[in-house]
Design goal:
Elements: H1 2-23, E1 37-42, E2 46-67, E3 72-77, E4 84-85, E5 90-94, H2 97-132, H3 138-171, E6 173-175, E7 180-182, E8 192-193, E9 200-217, H4 218-230, E10 234-235, E11 242-246, E12 257-262, E13 272-279, E14 291-308, E15 312-315, E16 318-324, E17 330-341, E18 344-349, E19 356-360, E20 372-375, E21 390-393, E22 396-399
Parallel strand pairs: 1-20
Antiparallel strand pairs: 1-19, 2-9, 2-14, 3-5, 3-8, 4-7, 5-6, 7-9, 9-13, 10-14, 11-12, 11-14, 12-13, 14-18, 15-16, 16-17, 16-19, 17-18, 21-22
Helix pairs in contact: 2-3
C-alpha cells in the first residue's frame, strides 16, 4: 500500500507543476520582422557630356624627306642623329668641285653670248639708216636684225644656265627644309648620291604638335546624328570639343587636344569614318606611329537621367530596375538603357524624375514587399567624371544600348 501511495503522490505533484506552468503567460505568436532596408537613389535630370572612346594613331604634323638634289659624293654629315634641327641648318655637304666647274663654264658661255649680242646689235644699228637710203638691201637689214635677236636669246639662255649652275652648287650644301626632329642618316660619307634619282638622305618630322587620326564606326556616327536630330543630345562646337588621350600603357596624357575635322566619306573596307585631332607635345613624350585611345566629347545631354550600373538587371528579355513606389513597396520597372556614363547607365526611357531606384539590397527583396528606403551614396564619387560612350568591340567601340545585352555588365 505504501508503494501505491507514493506513486499517487508523485502523479499529483506532476499535475500541479503542469497546471502552474499553464497558468504562466506565454507568447501567442512570433514577433513581426521590420521591412528590409534598401539603398535607393532618387533620379533627377542633369546635364552630362557624352564621350566616345575611339582608337587612333599619332602622326607628325609635317614630315620632310631630305634628298640629294644634285649628283656627287657625300663629304660630310654635320648633324647628330635624333636631334632637333632648325630650318636652314646644314645637314650634309656634297663634293662641290664638279658643280663649281659647271658654274664657271656657264659663266664663260654667258660672256661669249653677251659679246655676240653686242656685235650683232651694233651691226643692226649701223644698217638701220643705210636701208632707208637704199644703200643696202632690205634683206641684209632683216638678217642683221634677226642675228641681233638671236644673240639676245642666247644671252638669256646663258644667264639661265648660270643660274642653274649656281643653284646646283648651292644644293651641294644640304640644309633642313623645316624645323623638327631628324632621324637616322640614310647615307654615310663617301656615298655617291643623286645619280639619276633624288637619293633619300634623312627624314625630319615636326612632333609638336601631333596629329591624332581616329576612326569611328559609321553605325555609331549614325546613332549620334539621330540623337542630335531628335533633340536628345546637343552638339558641341569644334572649339568646345575636348579630346583626352590614353596611351598604350593605360595612362592619361596630361595635355588635352582639339578636333580639327571629320572626314566626309566612309572607308568602304572598314566601314569607318576618320576624324583628325591635334594634340600638343611640348615634352616630346609622344612619337609618331604610337597607338592611342582618345576620349572624344561629341555631345551634351542637357536633361539626362542616370542610375548606377548595379541597379540595372540586363537580360535577353529586357532591362529592368527595382523601384520603391508611393506605398513603400518594391515594384519592377522596365527601362531602356542608352550609353554608359562613368559607372552609371543613361536611361533613355522608363524612369521619371523623382523615382526611387533601389541600388543596394537587391538580394533580399522581391516585388510587392514593403521596404525601408535609405539614401545610397556612390563610393567612387569621381571629382571630375569623364563619360565613356562606347565599349570596345573589335577595332571600333560599340555604343552601350539595350539592344546589345551581351556586352554589358550584369547587375548583382
Amino acid at each position: 500500500m505504501s508503494y501505491k501511495k507514493r506513486a499517487f503522490t508523485f502523479v499529483v505533484a506532476l499535475a500541479a507543476v503542469a497546471l502552474t506552468a499553464c497558468g504562466r503567460e506565454q507568447p501567442t505568436a512570433a514577433v513581426d520582422m521590420p521591412p528590409p532596408q534598401v539603398g535607393v537613389v532618387t533620379v533627377e535630370p542633369e546635364p552630362i557630356t557624352l564621350v566616345t572612346e575611339l582608337p587612333g594613331r599619332l602622326e607628325a604634323v609635317r614630315t620632310a624627306q631630305v634628298r640629294a638634289r644634285v649628283a656627287g659624293i657625300v663629304l660630310e654629315q654635320t648633324f647628330r642623329e635624333g636631334s632637333e634641327v632648325k630650318a636652314g641648318d646644314v645637314l650634309f655637304r656634297i663634293d662641290p668641285a664638279p658643280l663649281q666647274a659647271a658654274l664657271n663654264s656657264a659663266k664663260a658661255q654667258l660672256a661669249r653670248a653677251e659679246a655676240n649680242f653686242k656685235q650683232a646689235s651694233s651691226r643692226a644699228q649701223r644698217f638701220a639708216p643705210l636701208v632707208k637710203t637704199n644703200a643696202i638691201s632690205q634683206q641684209d637689214y632683216d638678217d642683221a636684225v634677226a642675228a641681233r635677236d638671236q644673240a639676245a636669246a642666247e644671252v638669256a639662255a646663258a644667264k639661265a644656265a648660270v643660274e642653274t649652275a649656281r643653284l646646283n652648287l648651292g644644293y651641294a650644301t644640304v640644309t633642313a627644309p623645316i624645323d623638327g626632329r631628324i632621324g637616322r642618316a640614310l647615307v654615310t660619307e663617301g656615298t655617291l648620291v643623286g645619280q639619276g634619282e633624288a637619293t633619300p638622305l634623312a627624314i625630319i618630322q615636326q612632333i609638336d604638335p601631333l596629329y591624332v587620326n581616329l576612326v569611328q564606326s559609321s553605325a555609331e556616327l549614325l546613332r549620334l546624328r539621330r540623337a542630335l536630330a531628335s533633340g536628345q543630345l546637343e552638339e558641341l562646337s569644334p572649339d568646345e570639343v575636348k579630346i583626352t588621350l590614353i596611351t598604350e600603357d593605360g595612362e592619361e596624357y596630361p595635355h588635352p587636344g582639339r578636333l580639327l575635322f571629320s572626314d566626309i566619306s566612309v572607308d568602304p573596307t572598314t566601314g569607318a569614318v576618320m576624324l583628325r585631332a591635334v594634340v600638343p607635345n611640348p615634352d616630346r613624350f609622344l612619337l609618331p606611329g604610337m597607338y592611342v585611345r582618345a576620349r572624344l566629347e561629341q555631345a551634351v545631354a542637357s536633361n539626362a537621367i542616370t542610375v548606377p550600373q548595379q541597379a540595372v538587371s540586363r537580360t535577353g528579355q529586357g532591362d529592368t530596375v527595382m523601384v520603391v513606389d508611393d506605398e513603400g513597396r518594391v515594384a519592377v520597372r522596365p527601362v531602356q538603357v542608352g550609353r554608359a556614363y562613368v559607372n552609371r547607365w543613361v536611361i533613355n526611357a522608363g524612369l521619371q524624375p523623382g523615382d526611387r531606384v533601389i541600388v543596394d539590397g537587391l538580394q533580399k527583396i522581391r516585388p510587392g514587399i514593403p521596404v525601408t528606403p535609405v539614401a545610397w551614396r556612390d563610393p567612387l564619387q569621381p571629382a571630375e567624371p569623364s563619360a565613356v560612350g562606347g565599349i570596345a568591340a573589335g577595332p571600333y567601340p560599340a555604343v552601350a544600348t539595350s539592344s546589345d545585352p551581351a556586352t554589358q555588365p550584369q547587375a548583382n
